Amino acid sequence: MATQYDKLRERNKKYPNIDDSYKYSSLLLEDTCVALHGILLQDIKLGKQELFKEAKFIQSRLYETLTYILQRQGKSLDQVMMEFAHQKLKYLRSRTVVQPLIDMALAKQEPEQLLISAIMLRKKTAGYEPDVRSARSDMARLAYLIQEKVFRFGFYIWMGTLEELRHYEMTHKLSTLSESEGELKNFLVLKKHTLVLPRIGKPIPSTFMTTLLMNRIAPEFCIRLYRVEPETTMWDDREDDVARLHDYYSSIAQLNTGYGMWGVSGQIRNVRNQLMKVRDYLEASLFDRARAMLMMARVMFTDLVVVKSLEPEDVAECDYLKIHMEFLKAEIKEGMDKDQGLSSSEDSDYD
User: Fold this and answer.
1) Per DSSP, what are the bridge partners of residue 257?
2) Is this model's pTM higher than 0.85 or not?
3) Alpha-carbon distance 265 to 319, whole Å?
4) 80-85 and 101-108: which strand pairing?
5) What is the CA radius of gyration of the chain?
6) Is the peptide bond before 111 cis (omega within 30 degrees of 0)?
């Protein structure tokens, strides 16, 4: 009996005192995400996929799992707050005041409330797609709140199927599947993706750092936990996106266009990275440059399709990249046609 009590006491010591707030929060959230992944996979096996379309279902599962772990560790449940609002996040949109919410907050309540960690949850569902929410904007808000010393730490939880994860990697530049846990990643965010706060007059941090703390990937459902941190400097408002893109990509090694020693999987990652580069230049309205890079990416993709034998996951990835190439081609053509139309109208005005 004494041995069982010793094990129980030892288990309750796993999480340190809340004063060691980062270790406390990260351990708690890592354990929560691991347990939540198993719970959601069980929900899928029980035929509850339809419930995943409700944002509140995912939030309640997260809350139940986290508070259960806290309870088992002998921690107070009043350290968890849902749908937390803070005035620093308010901003105007079309003369309407918008109040983004923090999905979950961890706080020390005694002797007075002290906000420790902010947690944002992202699950693509039919009822969870308001226009003020995106992977980039959520992470930027977390970085902003930390920079403003509202919270000490920020965590971002991504949930979804493997197909949705690939989509978010491509469109929001989340860490790629090949990256290891604990690796830092700088996000390149263009001005058009920043959120301007009228009261402050500056965009919230345009670049921020993330660390992948936990990664659970299964065909049916994936969960990733990131730590989000602000960068110490903010880019000058007068700095051009083109210059920022050039500086960013000039520091990246040149991508190979032959699969050779890289192997097929390595070459697929090269194609994916090249497509991200095309996308970034496209969003900066550099359609000529983007078209040239797209041609490079198509050559790289040709290297893949001539391979006689591909693994099933490589075939799926090739098909997925092919779809994104078509989207990029259409956007590039539309942008170039638009630029050409503007140039023609300016010439006619000059005449």
Assistant:
1) none
2) no
3) 14
4) antiparallel
5) 23
6) yes
